[in-house]
Amino acid sequence: MQGERDLLRLARSGNQAAFSTLVATYENRIYGLALRYLGSRDDAQDATQEVFLRVFRFLGGFHEESSFSTWIYRIGVNVCKDMLSQKNRRAEQPLEWKDEDESDCEIPLRDDRYAPEAVFESAQLRQSLCEAILLLPETQRQIILLRDVQGLSYEDIGVVLSLELGTVKSRIARARENLRKILLQTGNISTPVSSNPVKGGESHV
Fold it and tell me: Rounded to two decimals, what is the model's pTM?
């Protein structure tokens, strides 16, 4: 099986099969990011198409200063930001979203400190978590999605968002704390009994 670098080299030379393989590798991940960022299946599909149009257009200028995955996530975030700005200008806010199979959204959060197991006990609570993420300020939403949903490293997030490592860490801490507060306010989690609170102090939005 060809490695990603070989596929990139072939795709840059105009090999359509190699480019299609790259699309197949990342399409679901980019769609998932867009769905949770924008809150709409239709918008997520449009965003995914736009991402790969940009990848096709600019692939010749990608010289592997970063990994291909980091580069494509950066494009994904930029496309979602552009689409969200357009929606905000039209004052169109999404009310709800469903996954492709029309089931309630599930987000595999990776940090127990702000996502108690109770959040996953029912589809209703999982949907509440999805809705809470949509209520986060955009900068906090994007960093939560990149870290806790897509699983990017702090370093890769810094490259995607053009942030210093310390800024990445502080924004993640504030976003997690803000998400915890939203869930507390809506009654979807109880106050944790653990003596190990989320680092970062009060959220400053």
Answer: 0.69
